[in-house]
Specification:
binds zinc ion, 336 residues, OB fold (Dihydrolipoamide Acetyltransferase, E2P), binds magnesium ion, Ribonucleotide Reductase Protein R1, domain 1, five-stranded mixed β-barrel, binds guanosine-5'-triphosphate
Amino acid sequence: MSKRKLTKQQLSRIKENQDKRLSKARGKKIDTSSEEFDTEHLPGIIVSQYGVTLDVEDSNGNITKCHARQNLGPIVCGDKVYWNMGQDSKGVVTTLMPRQSLLTRSGFHGNLKPVAANIDQIIIVCARKPLYREELIDKYLVAAENLGVTPVIAFNKADMLNEKQTDEIKAMLANYSAIGYQAVMVSATQAHGLDDLLSVMDNKTSILAGQSGVGKSTIINYLLPDENVQVGTLSDSKDKGKHTTTASRLYHLPQGGNLIDSPGVRDFGLHNVGTDEIIHGFIEFRPFIGRCKFKNCAHLKDAGCALQAAVLNGQISQRRLDSYQQIIEQLTNTPE
Ligand SMILES: Nc1nc2c(ncn2[C@@H]2O[C@H](COP(=O)(O)OP(=O)(O)OP(=O)(O)O)[C@@H](O)[C@H]2O)c(=O)[nH]1
Ligand SMILES: [Mg+2]
Ligand SMILES: [Zn+2]
């Protein structure tokens, strides 16, 4: 993107044109397959973004490399835009449409990095290699609840589990199902359980998220064999992924709907949410909130805590309460 500074007059003209396009488009359902509403500005969807380069797909499925107008802010995979063809067969994104949702994660120094926009579902992919952490799953659930998108837990690499481990994982998934979440056991390499996963993705935009090496790209390759997405082996010593996927990419599902592959995470920071949002993300705690003896109960070791009582009564699990407490502790220990 050019670092050239725009004059105030240019900026206000650009803004005026964007506002015109936005108000025209707001009257319609945003659909990249719909007719263009003017000849210059074409509707498009961002299928990938790396650095300042955006891959914009038009209504015919053609992809054009674009840059964005300077004043639009970060644009990510899943964003709906208007663009036009500039010089040298490169396009320019001129308008960013309002987002239904924006998934972010923390980058360096706790800065928020947008990952994908307009998603309906987060498929939290986990496995035994690399070893899953329930706290990471819980953090994704909190993020999904606060974004208003549906989380689905997909435990991959079921083929690698022995009987005892299978029972262990089934019990963990059953706990999540009891809370009300969809939780499935799959194997991307053995094509096991993927039809169940596919059916929850019908006509929705879903993102595959989770640690590096859990098999997100392998799932894409199974569901969309023509795509040939690069997958990576795990490191020999630590069973850790090698961060093979470096940019999110949106794919279309044959039965309708989109699926976004995303780069693996080490952790998932919840820096943009406060304690109220975190507790809101533990959906089974909701009936007990406001029932503690003290109004400012931190639900840690406080006397008369309704959540502690709910654990004793078998209404919520100690593990989820521990997870909540860990997340709160991390939040209070994170320097601004
Ligand atoms: N046994 C087994 N191995 C799998 C399965 N799914 C994926 N793998 C293997 O796990 C490794 C990592 O797979 P990827 O698809 O690259 O993982 P990813 O989640 O996309 O990783 P990043 O792109 O680094 O975030 C590869 O060696 C895959 O072959 C599975 O169901 N069973
Ligand atoms: Mg990958
Ligand atoms: Zn309490």
